[in-house]
């Protein structure tokens, strides 16, 4: 009879059975399945060298990234330069303001003599306005050059009645100048409604006009003269009648400048 072998018995001796296979060495690394291959690549090569099929794309992306970095640096430099120039200009303006203490000149209309209004005739009008303007320069260290290219216009409602220009002159510091300008119009045709309106205004002794003055000037501070600045004056004036002896009933002038 065959011998029985129990689990607790010791294994048979080498003479009785075939030699068993030695146990594989223990290792933490996984053992590949039969028929597979493990290729080991240096770590530096894995991270630094792209596959051949992606080499062109890698070079393109690297170049684009470098271009973006250069563009960002240029934009930052440009922005820094602009901010520096603005800061320098603001500091210079503040210094000039506190040193010169500039004051805006005052303008007003002193008198108006009117001719050429014949409201009873159907023929076109040729109105004339002799306007005296007062310019008050109250600055201690700033003079004003009034240049060529000025314009003075008188309107009734939206109708331009006459036009002219200011004389060219220099106004020194702490000076008040009265200058008279002759404004003329020709072939002015008023509508029937405008004729009735201006006639009614004259009968009431309150004829309103708008005077618009535009003058290119240069500011002089010491030996420094600025670029041309446009002075804008708009005056609402009301006269009692349309004659050479007219008197101003009311006036209100607004002042502004265009720096460029």
TrEMBL record:
InterPro entries reported in the protein's UniProt record: LEA_2, NDR1-like
Main location: membrane
Entry's transmembrane regions: 78-100
Biased composition (Pro residues): 21-33
Any Pfam family: LEA_2
Keywords, ordered alphabetically: Membrane, Transmembrane, Transmembrane helix
Boundaries of every Late embryogenesis abundant protein LEA-2 subgroup domain copy: 132-235
Subcellular location(s) of the protein: Membrane
Name of this chain's protein: Late embryogenesis abundant protein LEA-2 subgroup domain-containing protein
Organism of origin: Gossypium darwinii
């Amino acid at each position: 009879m065959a011998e029985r072998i129990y689990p607790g018995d010791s294994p048979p001796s080498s003479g009785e059975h075939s030699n068993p296979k030695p146990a594989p060495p223990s290792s933490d690394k996984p053992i590949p399945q039969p028929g597979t291959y493990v290729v080991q690549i240096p770590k530096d090569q894995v991270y630094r060298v792209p596959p051949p099929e992606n080499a062109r794309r890698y070079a393109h992306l690297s170049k684009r990234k470098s271009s973006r970095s250069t563009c960002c640096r240029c934009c930052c430099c440009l922005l820094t330069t602009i901010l520096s120039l603005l800061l320098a200009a603001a500091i210079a303006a503040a210094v000039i303001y506190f040193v010169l203490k500039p004051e805006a000149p005052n303008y007003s209309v002193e008198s108006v003599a009117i001719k050429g209004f014949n409201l009873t005739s159907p023929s076109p009008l040729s109105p004339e306005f002799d306007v005296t303007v007062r310019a008050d320069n109250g600055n201690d260290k700033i003079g004003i050059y009034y240049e060529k290219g000025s314009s003075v216009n008188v309107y009734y409602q939206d109708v331009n009645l006459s036009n002219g220009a200011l004389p060219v002159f220099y106004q020194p510091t702490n000076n008040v100048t009265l200058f008279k300008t002759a404004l003329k119009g020709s072939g002015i045709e008023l509508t029937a409604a405008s004729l009735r309106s201006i006639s009614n205004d004259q009968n009431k002794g309150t004829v309103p006009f708008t005077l618009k003055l535009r003058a290119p000037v240069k500011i002089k501070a010491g030996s420094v003269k600025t670029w041309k600045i446009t002075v804008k004056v708009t005056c609402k004036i009301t006269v009692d009648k349309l004659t050479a002896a007219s008197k101003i009933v009311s006036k209100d002038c607004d002042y502004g400048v265009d720096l460029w």
